[in-house]
Amino acid sequence: MAILFMGLATPNPYTSIGVGRYMALLVSSEPSFIASFMVPVIIASRFFNVNYSFYKASILSHRLWTIDPFSIISMILVAVAGFIALMGILEIRPFDFPEAEGEIYCGLFTEYCGPRLVLGFFILFTERIVFPLIYVMLFLGGSWPIDITMNYWAGFLIIFMKFILLFILLTIIDNVMPRLRPDQGVRILWKYALTLSLTALIISLI
Predict the structure, then answer these.
(1) 81 contacts 194 by C-beta, under 8 angstroms
(2) What is the distance between the alpha carbons of residues 53 and 44, in angstroms, rounded to a whole number?
(3) What is the mean pLDDT of the chain?
(4) Residue-wise DSSP of 138-174
(5) Main-chain phi, psi angles of 9, to 5 degrees
(6) Where are the domains positioned within the chain?
(7) Residues 138-186: tens digit of each pLDDT
(8) Per-position b or e across 77-107, b if 16+ CB within 10 A of its CB
């Protein structure tokens, strides 16, 4: 929301186009990602009585892949949906159309420079740390095969290594994929990411 307000505060046609594209991207990717990380929490609460605790579910996330066939199906679906939604949230190609330097200059940040520009990029770069960490904790087993409650530093190192590998994968995808048009990117997020995440959410609930 802060980035949207930054874009709306400057009267520039390129900024307005960037704001519209960014809003479309958020509306398309955020629901899928939220539904995706709800599924492991629901499954962990049902089988391990973690009382819908994100922290406890992340510690047990590696066990959610082997409880029963329905949990396996749900975890596979949300792992795929969550990864697609993650690319959308982080504006990883092919979902980087809100910036699209060759079309709308810098989009949201066209009129910004200096400290304000740094603040905007700081928000985006913070997301590139926080959201992949959420994905690692819920879908890549967190600190598994080490129990972080028994050995904190070894578990922290495992999580960090998984985060680095995921970050490298996202960077490779960002550099080799072409950019989609906004309508194409939104269609993919609604058609695949949201459909898969909602299907897995329904399976985990019933």
Answers:
(1) yes
(2) 9
(3) 82
(4) HHS-TTTTS-TTT-HHHHHHHHHHHHHHHHHHHHHHH
(5) -75, -10
(6) 2-205
(7) 888 887 888 777 888 888 899 899 999 999 998 898 888 887 788 888 8
(8) bbbbbbbbbbbbbbbbbbbbbbbbeeebbbb
